[in-house]
Amino acid sequence: MDWQELRKTYPRDPDLPARAHRLAALGRVLGGTQYDAIPNPFGTEYNGAGEYIPLSQRRPSVRTNMCRAVVDDAVSLLFGASHWPTTAATDPTLPGILAQVAAGTALPALMMEAATRGSVGSVAVLVEAVDRRLRFAVHDTLYLTPRWDGAGELSAMTECYKVTGATLAGQGWPVGPDDAAAIFWWQRIWDRADCHVYVPRRVDAGLPTQVDPTRSTHHGLGFVPWVWMANLAAPGVVDGPCTFEAAIDTVIECDYLLSQSGRGLKYSADPRLVIRAGPDPYADGTPASSGGAASALTLPLDGDAKLLEINGDAAGAMRDHYRELRASVMEQIHGNRAQADRLSAPASGRAMEMLYQPLLWLADRMRLSYGEYGLLALYRMVCAFSHAIAGGLRINGRDYAGLDADGLALQWPPYFAGTEADLAQLAQGLDTAVRGGFLSRQTACVILAARAGTPSPHSEWARIGTERPN
């Protein structure tokens, strides 16, 4: 079975666009539920009618989830605890304010979730202000439709999906008991001034057209409060390429190979006994075959018996084949091909970067999609909220209005912290460059502070100035 055949087992809603089905299918792989639509477990060989069930119609008993593992590794290098980027801006107080926003809204955890869920192609973040306090929410995009204007700015966002009448009744919509099991369209549209919530409509009646004025809101922000992030793509693209789609076929092969290998090893522990009897195999009441090797049998003179089992050579060949398949998966999606058991001693930061180079290339591309085009856009939107809301934003108990996003930029820490020897060698080189007049002391300070993993490299020079004796 390959990915094309596996997708045919998923239910398909004809009312949804093709991209929604593609994103939903890729989301199954990311969540590890891609085989749940196959009804037969791997250990069931025959159905109730005695017919043999092919392997492609059974759920694998082993799921490697290599696609999710690569995504998790890359996201950890992108927004992990020691990889969260700091900010720099023309206003020296803005980085500290944005750091308070990130801490107060759990923004690092939210961005890790966004980068993980966006690996299927895209993800979107809704920004709302409740009592002048910001709130972020990550949304999958299979039910979202963005629209950009000629300048590349988001001009509208449509959210539309199906919901049961019972769910609508629980939300306070006037739905009668006869329509509790019916399916309705639920839709809302954001633009630069309003959020229009439409009266739900039965699917057989078409999309909603009537706006509910009591549930709609006029935000008056002057911009759409959404940030759209296309995976591994530039802004203005609806869906970027999936991080792991190229390797799904090989991962399916790995899952079935390991499932069949495990099945063979279990049968070797209790092999099937096959008996070749004489002219009348049932003359003495002995059955022609018996499951397992526990029963001792008496055979006629011309009879024969054998144990069907997998030998060590076949098991070793399966392991070698799996290693080749795994290496192919990691090469296709830029995963980590390093073997941890082969690292005999601690390595320097530069050596670790070379060891994990393919994964770092993937993380570099994700820094653009979810950092420069995602997190930085969220920070700029925070500043825009401070202008649009009367009284400004309330952050950590203080009010901030009119925040200036001029010169706002991200500063990324190194992927791997340098060892003491690395930092000493870098410090000596920077000292030589400063003494030779090729580098300023401030630039050298920023370089060394960034390499050492200082939270705010640019502010380190200011601290040195305050600590320097007069």
From TrEMBL:
This is Phage portal protein, SPP1 Gp6-like. It comes from Komagataeibacter europaeus (Gluconacetobacter europaeus).
